[in-house]
Amino acid sequence: MLSELRLLSRVLRSNVMRLRYPSKLSFAITYRCNLKCGMCSIWKRSRIPELTTAEIEAFFKKSNNFSWVGLTGGEIFLREDIIDIVRVTLKHCKNLCVLHFPTNGYLKDRILLRVGEMLKLKPPRLFVTISVDGPPQIHDRLRGVPGSWKNAVETFIALRGMPGVSPYLSMTLSHGNLGTIDETISSIRDVYPDFDPDKMMNFNIFQTSSHYYANTDLGRLDESLLMKDVEKALTVVGGGSTFKNYLQKNYLKLYESFFRSGKSPLPCQALSASCFINPYGDVFPCAVFDKTIGNIKDPLFTLGDVWNRKDVAVLHHACKTGHCPGCWSPCDAYQTINGNLLRLRS
């Protein structure tokens, strides 16, 4: 309850001031991936030594006042030390309200085993998003590995049966799957008749990034087709009354503004409510802005000290006023939506 109140307090304060410490950390702990997605080139990256568990723990010992930690990749379950990473995260982040991670769901048995081990560590809230980007043939083509749809949906169904975890299917709208939302939902219901997309599904739209996805060679989506899908997605997940529905509704409604301007449709919360760390320890404002503010392997690094440097505050102002590459990805957009509640009400 205290962690929830702290998160709520931070959300409210982010509407009127720059937070003195980020409420959410997006932490990419690996760029390794077992799929070969067409809209993302993380899997093509050369192999560079990633942060060790000890280095991650050293960071969390000194920098841990987060309400929300999202562990992401690549595919995080390719790290053999994933449970140790979760353990040190929970050990040091005493104010944590949410632990979240995405997965492609391909390594079903390993994922179920590891999630079971995570639950024994008693995370306050554990959210898991499993990627499903179309009906089986389209998903497998986009993901580059046969059988990836089947494994993803089976992983989702199995996680639905595990008390203590909240799993969601996440569909990324991209070049190869526009116009397939209804077919995607129908294919899931063929194997899981109880599937309720309003409660169990999220949508996002593919994003380019030089330092994260390494996919800036991809062109823009067809505006007409994309906006039809955005409207369709709104009918699927925009009618509920949960906080998830609220975030999805505003994310999707505001996407057209981003698509046309290339800038966040609301004053961005990067380097106020959130930041991004890559598997080598570099700290960025977000998953898109290729500007580092430090590296956690530096023995003198603490996020609190860096956060309150003048140059970091100036960089936040650049993000807030649109003097940045611009993005509208849920990882950062959700914090921006939370930080602009009064604007959204007006």
Distance between the termini: 30 Å
Structural class: alpha/beta
Task: Tally the helices.
Answer: 15
Question: What fraction of the residues are assigned to beta strands by DSSP?
Answer: 5-15%
Question: Mean pLDDT, nearest integer?
Answer: 95
Oligomer: single chain
Tally of extended strands? Answer: 9
* Unreliably modeled segments: none
Order of helices and strands: HEHEHEHEHHEHHEHHHEEEHHHH
Binned, the helix content reads 40-55%
Q: What profile does the largest beta sheet have? A: 9 strands, mixed
Numbering strands along the chain, what is their spatial order in the largest sheet?
6-5-4-3-2-1-7-8-9
- What global shape is seen? globular
Q: Kindly provide the radius of gyration, computed on alpha-carbon positions and rounded to a whole number of angstroms.
A: 19 Å
List the helices and strands and how they pair.
Blueprint: H1 2-13, E1 24-28, H2 53-62, E2 68-72, H3 82-92, E3 98-103, H4 108-120, E4 126-131, H5 136-143, H6 148-160, E5 165-173, H7 181-191, H8 197-200, E6 201-205, H9 223-237, H10 243-253, H11 255-261, E7 274-277, E8 282-284, E9 294-295, H12 303-307, H13 310-320, H14 330-338, H15 341-345
Parallel strand pairs: 1-2, 1-7, 2-3, 3-4, 4-5, 5-6
Antiparallel strand pairs: 7-8, 8-9
Helix pairs in contact: 2-3, 4-6, 9-10, 10-14
